[in-house]
């Protein structure tokens, strides 16, 4: 059921087609310049026109279609190029007509031809202006050339010479009066010969006669009766000179008028054959519209006899109209009879002439019958193979044959017409006429079947639906509509990207057909623009109802189809809006005991629906509310605990999604002791995916909860914690280790037995290894994976248990490891979450030491006292042990800040990285860094020194950045820190002015105005007594 994908690369194809059209236009200009050479009359005007077109050719060669398309857009550029190409062709045709053919006719029509050229020149100028080439980023000389071309063509005038106009006037008078005066005719011939640069010889007259007769035949073939009459009159004029003798077998004037009763059939006002002749008061007849327009202009004279009319009443000339109609019928019959052998001819020119006539004849049903009798269908289909013949006219003929004769529809299909029409469209042929034939053929069910099975037919018609031609798109739509009763055909349409018939057919279909269609949809490539059709409410509802079918095949096809569709958010919304979606899926889970694939499929879909839902807690989606009921959560837990591994994984995934969105579901799982015990026992599973999803669920129900991880009762509790530590330490799987670290970080905080288990395990060493190895990867410019980033973040979260000031035993264990350099480097290279957790860890370590320092008095650096008493009781928290005989004095704490005895942000070189971290205003990073820096200012005795270190590390500028860009909580902490810094350092006036501007803005913020006012008072900006306090 696969089809051609016509949407692939359409943009590139459009540009290529556009460039080809651009090249055609450039080639057309070259040809037009060549055509304007050797003009017979008015050479100067044509020379000026030739120069402008030559400059246009240069301009087109200097640009390219891509550049113009980027400025105007594909469709606008194509439309403008098409128009310009047509105008250039029109000019070329006018010039060719002006140069070739009879010079007598040329003289007679010179005035009208020149006016046509003038109009074409102005039209070309307008089209070039539409390109807006002067607005493109091009060289100045090209812009100047563009403007000059537009001006020259727009103002160009083509005027006949006075002598030429006089001769033309005399010729018009002579042929209209139809005089037989030989002398006058010869004198006029001499003037004509002089005008065209020839001698009034028999040779001139014979050549002119030959040309005029040839042109007359062409006009007759084209049904241009007025032109044919004029040519006949010129022929009569030449014979009247008696320079040459009329052949005996040639028509006489009377015979001519019998064959061409044009004199009475042609309206003298509009110069066209009359269709609604009316007689005026004097008796002369005219076309109704023409004489009415004549009277509207205020004229009251007869255009023929000039007699003033006493009445403007019009009388239908029924006799004349019947004569015209009879003559037309006879004329058409003769031409149809002449066209039949020509259409069967092997000469392409003859076939083209015949096709031009036939497409007009076949508009009348009576000629369709005649064409059917002549068996023309086969030949017309054959003509579609030949690019040298007018295939558009052949298609139009086939269209009328199919429209007016059902038997001819069969004949077209038997002759291979469908396949030939498809190929014709593929090659860029006339889409409108081709679709017209297909539309008529598809009306017949048996032929529609053959059409739908024709290779590439349906994808091709689908590709024409959105073409920028309403007639084409409407016909394409009608063809597809006629084919839509066949299920296989609507599937083909969907494969080609047209889903409306598929959706409509699915909604009307019975159960077995829906199963077939749903199975087909699974294998169809979907794009975003298809989803609007597929999210149709009735379609989604009918698809969901298939879940309750008694047929396993129907259920399976439905689930596979929905799994494909839920990849698109709009479909998820529609599924959630339908009240039966979740109950049906839960029903499939509850009552299906044998087919595990169906259970797994239902669970996978539910997980996707929950994961993509944006308003889970709101009552908008009734099904989601039912899903988090105690009964349904217990059902999912029961299946998860008792199922085999693959099903267990799917239901763990579902429970993770449900827990991440529903606090109710989280609490129900946490309080189910049996389920918790089963979860922790599943950590011993041999299936790594089971272990990973179990840990994800445990972490999900624990994260952010005040009681942390819900642990089983002892002794399973101790076993569970030990097992988590073992996974963190020994698992080769990064994702497993990350999940274990995350759960450890969520273990209950106030449980000393947990601390003891962790202290006795090698969990801290594993955390140390993660941080250091990740640091090594970053230092070696090895791009870490998402899993590696997650492992580092969770390891840092677990580390916070060891840096907690209330847990001295764990801090002591941490102090034995050389961890602080890697921690400091995470501040500059880690993710935002890793930075926040690292800053929090450093803050907790610094807080423990700073509180100890603040309780004692640090002695002057000049003395070298014995170890202070308070330090004997401070845990050894210096993360990088060093020799007590080889350390430098701390600029804040002096010798008392020994690496062996205490942790210090200054000695750890962490101050500047913390200050740099303040530029990260995401995820609470700045708040954590500010908290760490503020621990340096707890000890009043060293606050001046600590302030100096922060200021020297560009801390003031960083605080200013937080106040400008940070969150409200970060701004609050920044104000607290800045207020303390102000007490111990002097800040430059420009910087203070920047602080002042920002703080004054804070006065209008309810959350910040009080703190901002306190700082402004401290800066001396607002008085001591203020309404802000």
TrEMBL record:
**Which pathway is recorded for this entry?**
Protein modification; protein ubiquitination
- PROSITE patterns referenced in this protein's UniProt entry, alphabetically: ARM_REPEAT (PS50176), U_BOX (PS51698), ZF_RING_2 (PS50089)
An annotated Gene Ontology molecular function: ligase activity
Q: Which residues form the RING-type domain?
A: 267-306
EC category name: transferase
Q: What region holds the U-box domain?
A: 260-334
E.C. numbers:
2.3.2.27
Identify this protein by name: RING-type E3 ubiquitin transferase
Q: What is the lineage of its organism?
A: Eukaryota, Viridiplantae, Streptophyta, Embryophyta, Tracheophyta
């Amino acid at each position: 059921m696969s089809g051609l994908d016509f949407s692939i690369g359409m943009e590139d194809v459009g540009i290529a087609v556009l460039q080809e059209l651009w090249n055609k236009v450039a080639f057309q200009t070259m040809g037009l310049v060549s055509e304007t050479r050797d003009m017979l009359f008015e050479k100067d005007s044509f020379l000026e026109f030739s120069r402008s077109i030559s400059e246009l050719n240069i301009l087109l060669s200097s640009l390219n279609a891509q550049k113009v398309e980027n400025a105007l857009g594909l469709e606008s550029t194509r439309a403008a190029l098409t128009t310009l190409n047509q105008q250039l062709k029109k000019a070329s045709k006018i010039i060719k007509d002006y140069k070739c053919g009879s010079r007598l006719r040329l003289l007679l029509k010179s005035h009208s031809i020149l006016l046509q050229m003038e109009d074409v020149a102005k039209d070309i100028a307008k089209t070039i202006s539409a390109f807006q080439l002067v607005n493109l980023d091009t060289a100045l000389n090209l812009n100047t050339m563009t403007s000059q071309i537009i001006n020259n063509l727009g103002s160009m005038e083509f005027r006949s010479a006075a002598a030429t106009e006089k001769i033309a006037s005399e010729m018009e008078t002579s042929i209209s009066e139809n005089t037989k005066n030989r002398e006058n005719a010869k004198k006029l011939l001499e003037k004509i010969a002089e005008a065209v640069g020839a001698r009034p010889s028999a040779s001139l007259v014979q050549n002119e006669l030959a040309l005029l007769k040839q042109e007359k035949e062409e006009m007759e073939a084209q049904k241009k009766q007025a032109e044919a009459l004029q040519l006949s009159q010129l022929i009569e004029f030449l014979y009247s000179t008696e320079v040459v003798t009329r052949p005996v077998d040639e028509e006489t004037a009377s015979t001519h008028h019998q064959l061409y009763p044009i004199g009475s059939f042609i309206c003298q006002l509009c110069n066209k054959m009359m269709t609604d002749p009316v007689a005026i008061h004097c008796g002369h007849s005219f076309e109704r519209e023409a004489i009415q327009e004549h009277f509207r202009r205020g004229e009251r004279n007869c255009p023929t006899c000039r007699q003033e009319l006493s009445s403007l009443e019009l009388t239908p000339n029924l006799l004349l109209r019947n004569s015209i109609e009879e003559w037309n019928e006879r004329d058409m019959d003769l031409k149809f009879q002449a066209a039949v052998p020509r259409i069967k001819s092997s000469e392409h020119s003859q076939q083209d002439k015949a096709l031009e006539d036939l497409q007009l004849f076949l508009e009348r049903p009576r000629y369709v019958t005649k064409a059917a009798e002549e068996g023309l269908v086969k030949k017309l289909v054959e003509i579609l193979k030949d690019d040298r013949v007018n295939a558009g006219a052949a298609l139009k003929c086939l269209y009328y044959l199919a429209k007016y004769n059902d038997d001819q529809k069969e004949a077209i299909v038997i002759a291979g017409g469908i396949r030939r029409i498809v190929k014709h469209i593929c090659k860029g042929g006339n889409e409108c006429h081709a679709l017209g034939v297909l539309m008529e053929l598809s009306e017949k069910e048996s032929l529609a079947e053959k059409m739908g099975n024709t290779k590439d037919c349906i994808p091709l018609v689908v590709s024409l639906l959105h073409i920028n031609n309403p007639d084409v798109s409407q016909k394409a739509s009608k063809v597809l509509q006629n084919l839509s009763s066949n299920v296989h055909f609507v599937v083909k349409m969907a494969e080609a990207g047209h889903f409306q018939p598929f959706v409509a057919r699915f909604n009307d279909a019975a159960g077995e057909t829906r199963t077939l269609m749903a199975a087909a949809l699974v294998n169809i490539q979907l794009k975003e623009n298809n989803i609007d059709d597929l999210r149709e409410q009735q379609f989604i509802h009918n698809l969901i109802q298939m879940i309750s079918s008694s047929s396993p095949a129907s259920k399976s096809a439905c689930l596979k189809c929905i799994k494909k569709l839920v990849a698109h958010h709009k479909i998820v919304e529609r599924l959630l809006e339908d009240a039966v979606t979740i109950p049906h899926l839960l029903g499939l889970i509850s009552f299906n005991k044998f087919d595990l694939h169906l259970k797994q499929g239902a669970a996978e879909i539910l997980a996707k629906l929950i994961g993509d839902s944006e308003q889970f807690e709101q009552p908008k989606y009734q099904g989601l509310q039912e899903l988090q009921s105690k009964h349904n959560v217990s059902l999912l837990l029961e299946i998860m605990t008792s199922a085999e591994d693959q099903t267990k994984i799917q239901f763990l995934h579902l429970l993770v999604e449900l827990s991440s969105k529903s606090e109710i579901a989280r609490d129900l799982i946490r309080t189910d002791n049996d389920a918790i015990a089963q979860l922790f026992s599943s950590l011993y599973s041999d299936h790594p995916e089971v272990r990973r999803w179990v840990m994800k669920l445990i972490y999900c129900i624990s994260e952010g909860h005040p009681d942390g991880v819900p642990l089983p009762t002892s002794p399973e509790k101790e076993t569970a914690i030990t097992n988590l530590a073992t996974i963190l330490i020994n698992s080769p799987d990064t994702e497993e280790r990350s999940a274990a670290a995350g759960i450890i970080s969520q273990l209950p905080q106030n449980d000393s037995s947990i601390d003891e288990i962790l202290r006795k395990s090698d969990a801290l060493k594993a955390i140390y290894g993660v941080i250091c190895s990740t640091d090594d990867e970053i230092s070696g410019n090895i791009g870490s994976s998402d899993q590696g980033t997650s492992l580092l973040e969770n390891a840092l979260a677990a580390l916070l248990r060891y840096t907690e000031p209330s847990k001295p035993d764990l801090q002591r264990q941490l102090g034995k490891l050389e961890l602080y350099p890697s921690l400091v480097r995470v501040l500059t290279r880690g993710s935002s979450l890793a930075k926040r957790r690292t800053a929090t860890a450093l803050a907790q370590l610094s807080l423990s030491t700073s509180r100890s320092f603040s309780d004692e008095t640090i002695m002057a650096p000049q003395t070298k006292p014995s170890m202070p008493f308070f330090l004997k009781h401070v845990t050894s928290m210096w993360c990088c042990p060093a020799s007590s005989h080889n350390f430098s004095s701390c600029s804040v704490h002096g010798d008392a800040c020994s690496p062996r005895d205490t942790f210090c942000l200054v000695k750890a070189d962490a101050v500047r990285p913390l200050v740099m971290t303040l530029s990260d205003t995401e995820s609470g990073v700045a708040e954590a860094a500010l908290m760490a820096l503020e621990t340096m200012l707890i000890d009043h005795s060293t606050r001046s020194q600590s302030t100096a270190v922060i200021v020297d590390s560009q801390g003031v500028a960083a605080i200013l950045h937080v106040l400008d860009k940070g969150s409200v909580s970060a701004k609050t902490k920044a104000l607290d820190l800045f207020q303390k810094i102000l007490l111990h350092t002097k800040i430059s006036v420009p910087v203070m002015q920047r602080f002042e501007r920002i703080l004054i803005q804070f006065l209008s913020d309810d959350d910040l105005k009080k703190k901002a006012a306190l700082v402004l008072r401290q800066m001396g900006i607002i008085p001591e007594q203020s309404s802000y306090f």
